[in-house]
Amino acid sequence: MNHPFHQFHFCPKCGSPRFVVNDEKSKRCESCGFTYYLNPAAATVALIENEQGEWCVVRRAKDPAKGTLDLPGGFSDLYESSEEGVAREVMEETGLKVESMEFLFSIPNQYEYSDFLVHTIDMFYHCHVRTTTGARAADDAGELLWLRPEDIRPEDFGLQSIRRGVERLLAMHQ
After folding, report:
1. Cβ atoms of residues 111 and 29 within 8 Å
2. How many domains is the chain built from?
3. Which residue segment(s) compose the domain that 33 sits in?
């Protein structure tokens, strides 16, 4: 697999084509001296349980992995904490208001968007909502399902990091 630097040809500061690999983490512009570090984007994932112990699972409405299962979540926005991002994404995709949350773990991921490979760090949260009444699929979620953990099959989740995270969540649940 190519290092993601092969996609960056011009300095983002001055536009020079003299933008060369500096080390495994950065490129440096030979014209203006700017060093660019390629860091992963922050992404969030929510585990939400209802009163029956079922997990909120959504079906992806868009690529990548359109039609496969997913957990609510998405990218954190600029000037937004990871916690604010997961609460916003849950509201956008399910209509549920997150009251509190606990960080569980993170998994590095590669997410292809518009033929561009975005490196992410997916942060998993156990999110608590006051009520699941009125939950509905919206935004990137085409369908919302409540599944018992014993009925969840990690292979039904289309994104690799989510699949790995679901495996880990199921192991923690036992």
Report:
1. no
2. 2
3. 4-37
